[in-house]
Amino acid sequence: MEDLSLHILDIAENSINAGARNVEIVVQEDRTHDVLKIEILDDGRGISPEVAGKVADPFFTTRTTRRVGLGLALLDEAAKAANGRLEVSPIPDSGTRVTVTFQLTNIDRKPLGDMAATIVMLIAGNPDVRFIYRYEHDGGKYVFDTQEVRKRLHGLDMNAPEALTFIRELITEHTASLS
Ligand SMILES: Nc1ncnc2c1ncn2[C@@H]1O[C@H](COP(=O)(O)OP(=O)(O)OP(=O)(O)O)[C@@H](O)[C@H]1O
Ligand SMILES: [Mg+2]
Q1: Which ligand has the minimum distance to the alpha carbon of residue 65?
Q2: Smallest-distance ligand from the CA of 96
Q3: Residue 26 forms beta bridges with which residues?
Q4: What mean pLDDT is predicted for residues 139-148?
Q5: Could you tell me the strand order of the sheet in which 86-91 lies?
Q6: Mean pLDDT of the chain
Q7: Can you give the pLDDT at residue 56?
Q8: 71-125: per-residue pLDDT in tens?
């Protein structure tokens, strides 16, 4: 079974392909309301409301467009299987927002998986893009921001192996202490 962190990697790649310079990933685990909410926001070229309403539908997209993938359709399927839903919408004058929810305790909800690995892979491939990762677990909150971390690297490249190892451990440690 594929973890949600791999879906998130796929959706964030859409942002990169759309020319985004800033990508924000928000994961909220809310046990009170039994909801897991994931948002990916970018400042890429954006998406028209018409396209946004249809990307999650593989039948529509395969029929009408040539170069379509299944990234959003697969996430939509994963959400529906766990009593949730996917929404893709334009951010006015800015970019694109993908919001997906799941029933947290649903037996068919995929596990979140290794988010630190996903963030590290995104940074490794796109060292000049600013990535912000917010993780909220009930009351607790952790924010990772490449712009902040860059200052702590003392000139080391963002995608240097030592930097990526440091980032992976940083995210793993901080998010583990919340859950
Ligand atoms: N963040 C985004 N900004 C702009 N357009 C987007 C964004 N995300 C998705 N799209 C549009 O929706 C389409 C479908 O996205 P989806 O991830 O489902 O498939 P894909 O990226 O085309 O292919 P694959 O993910 O399989 O490589 C994209 O081709 C793109 O036109
Ligand atoms: Mg894609």
Answers
A1: 1
A2: 1
A3: 39, 134
A4: 95
A5: 86-91, 95-103, 35-42, 22-30, 130-137, 140-145
A6: 91
A7: 72
A8: 898 999 999 999 999 999 999 888 999 999 999 999 999 999 999 999 999 999 9
**DSSP assigned state of 80:** H
Give the bridge partners for 145, in sequence order: 132
- Backbone torsions φ then ψ of 32, nearest 5 degrees: -60, -45
Closest ligand 1 atom number to CA of residue 68: 22
Task: Write down the pLDDT at residue 171.
Answer: 97
End-to-end CA separation in angstroms for the chain: 22
Amino acid type, 108:
D
Instruction: List all residues whose CB is within 6 A of at least one atom of ligand 1.
Output: 10, 14-15, 18, 42, 44-47, 55, 68-73, 96
Closest C-alpha residue for ligand 1 atom 12: 55
Other beta carbons less than 10 A from residue 43's beta carbon: 19
**38-71: pLDDT as tens digits:** 999 999 999 988 888 887 766 655 445 545 568 8
Tell me which of 45, 55, 66 to substitute to probe ligand 1's pocket, judged by most ligand atoms within 8 Å of the beta carbon: 55
The token pair that represents 116 in the structure block: 């630190």
As a whole number of Å, the CA-based R_g of the chain is 16
